[in-house]
Amino acid sequence: MSRVPIPRHYGLDWLRVAAFAILIVYHVGMVFVPWGFHAKSAHGADWAILPMLAVNAWRLSLLFVVSGYASRALLTRAPGVGGFLWQRTARLLVPLAFGVAVVVPPQSWVELVTQHGYRGGFPSFWVHDYFRFGRLGGIVLPALNHLWFVAYLWLYTLVLAVAVMAVRWRGAQAAFDRLFAGPALLVVPLAWLVCIHAWWFPMGYETHDPLHDVMAHLSYLPAFLFGFALAGSAPVLAACVRWRWPAALLGIAGYGFILAVELAPDGEAPRWLYPAYGAAHAVQQWTTIVALIGFAERHWNRDARVRQMLTEAVFPFYLVHQTIIVLVAYWLIPAGLSGGVEFALLVAATVAGCLLFYIAGRRIRPVRPLIGLRPLPHPVHRAMP
After folding, report:
1. How many whole angstroms separate alpha carbon 122 and alpha carbon 106?
2. Residue 192 located in a structural domain
3. Domain limits at 200?
4. What residues does the Acyltransferase domain cover (predicted)?
5. Could you tell me the CA-to-CA distances from 289 to 107, 248, 283, 349 in Å, in that order?
6. Is residue 325 over pLDDT 90?
7. CA angle, corner 325, sides to 320 and 330, nearest 5?
8. Looking at residue 279, what is its pLDDT?
9. Cα 111 to Cα 375: distance, rounded to the nearest angstrom
10. pLDDT digits (tens, 9 = 90+) for 242-252
11. Greatest CA span in the chain, whole angstroms?
12. Number of separate domains in the chain
């Protein structure tokens, strides 16, 4: 494939930062909705699902598209496919191992204590129970939890490396440009996602177990590969700009249908409505992504002084944010605060804790690779005159 460097797309950088900011608020929201989570507030409410569903369909697929785009840029600067794979393995698996061993355990402990009657303290749990490689209270330990995204990103990087070596990429890129520069940009991915959500897995759920998560792989791997091809395609980026407003309106319509079903007085959706609900989910998922990429290309592709710091901070924030949310929620449960105060404190504490984690970690040379940051260059020692 071409070794021409891919210019940095500041608009997609801003999308990535915004998507992870949404993720923090989303995971705070998980404390209050009736869906399963590691820590639950006494102020849970069914209505809290509605704003969550505004982003639930597209937030992760967008991150995989942006990750695919970034992978193309990294590959053009790497010393071959093998060098690219080695670099990505170090940047992804080292923080993944650190996260599973050190960052995630408090989440599992809080869930066991608050939902499964576990009576041991955290040090005892971490030393004696966490690394059992089995189940405790129905929870698989050690746990990936939110770090499944990093594991999947590494797996998709492996697939990408094999594809780049096996496919005549110039021809594949030309075919991508021809196909997705027109209305097929909306139609083809949308048809695929409708098959997933309305036909093959109606009202299905992701498992976040890489060996048993077919629905997620069918959705996220194509999104990742689409982003990789998009990085070398000016015509498809132009098509995203051209279709951004129709795509945005379709995304809003898909969310509107989902809202109508959720707000129906009969409660749970009848089984015959599952395919239509899944189709609306698919519409919201893909068209929102196309619209956001179009707006990023047309309006947000410009740099700012804070962008470099924010893009570097995203990975450390992602690594630690859910553990902070779960621990702070656990400490707030006995305080008897109102739901609104709990939510505000959780958001503020999570942002502050993530920022402290990033600022402290980036200054310590051995810690940087553990939290997903590039190693600092070694200082050059000049000889004394």
Report:
1. 7
2. yes
3. 10-104+144-371
4. 10-358
5. 31, 9, 10, 30
6. yes
7. 130
8. 97
9. 34
10. 999 999 999 99
11. 84
12. 1
Asked whether residue 380 carries a pLDDT value surpassing 50, the answer given is no
Which residues are CB-contacts of 186 (< 8 A; sequence separation ≥ 6)? 243, 246, 247, 250, 286, 287, 290
Joined together, the tokens standing for residue 151 give 């594991």
Q: Are 65 and 223 in contact (CB under 8 A)?
A: yes
Residue 376 inside a domain? The answer is no
Q: What would the pLDDT profile of 124-141 be if each residue is shown by its tens digit? A: 999 999 999 999 988 999
- CA-to-CA distance for 360 and 323, rounded, in angstroms? 17
Strands (E), 25-144: 134-136, 139-141
pLDDT at 271: 78
DSSP state of 196: I
pTM over 0.90: yes
Using CB atoms within 10 A of its CB, is residue 339 exposed (0-12), middle (13-18) or buried (19+)?
Answer: middle
pLDDT surpassing 70 at residue 379: no
What distances in angstroms separate CA 268 from CA 257, 273, 274, one per listed residue? 14, 10, 11
Backbone dihedral region for residue 78 (phi beyond 0: left; psi -120 to 50: alpha; all else: beta): beta
Determine, yes or no, domain membership for 113. Answer: no
Q: State residue 34's pLDDT score.
A: 93
Q: If we measure between CA atoms, which residue out of 83, 59, 82, 75 comes closest to residue 225?
A: 75
Contacts of 202 (CB under 8 A, 6+ apart): 274, 275, 277, 278
Contact 224, 152 (CB under 8 A): no
Mean pLDDT, rounded, for 283-295? 98
On the question of pLDDT at 385 being above 60, the answer is no
Upper half-sphere CA count for residue 383 (Cβ side, 13 Å)? 1
User: How many CB atoms neighbour CB 113 within 10 A?
Assistant: 18
Give Cα separations from 54 to 22, 179, 256, 288, 347 (angstroms).
11, 29, 9, 10, 19
What percent of the chain has pLDDT above 90?
87
pLDDT tens sequence across 201-245: 998 889 999 999 999 999 999 999 999 999 999 999 999 999 999
Residue 87: phi and psi, rounded to 5, are -60, -45
Which two three-digit tokens encode residue 38?
A: 């590691």
Residue 245: how many CA atoms within 13 Å on its side-chain side? Answer: 2
Q: Which of 35, 43, 86, 11 is nearest to 342 (CA)?
A: 43
